[in-house]
Amino acid sequence: MPNDDLIAAAQAVLNPHRVGDRLFGDVGSTLITDAGNLYSGVCIDTGSGTGFCAEHAAIAAMVTAREYRIAKVVAVWRNDEGVLHVLPPCGRCREFMRQIDPANLDSEVVLGRRRTARLRDLLPANEWPDPLD
Known about the structure:
133 residues, alpha+beta, Cytidine Deaminase, domain 2, seven-stranded mixed β-sheet, 26% helix
């Protein structure tokens, strides 16, 4: 799937909603699985660390459908001036993708319209360490 199509799918789920000082749905993510299915989600910003990133929501939808392998993933955010940005996954999201299926280290992460990187390149030193003894 072309990056622009995946970006458009993630943009389509953006729906910012403010509750007090918290903002829900201002980041959207869409992923395509190795089977060719699309899953999307939005971020939920809540207090005390109980919220989650848009990638987590998209991955949860994928796992609910009994899929585990991510072919390509993107997250997007629109700033106050209306400019759309592609966001790289945070460290927690990178590790989450790896733990869902180790083969996801080969997933493409969209970093821009014409730029991607493999998850393994964004998550260095991801292998389990050798024993010291």
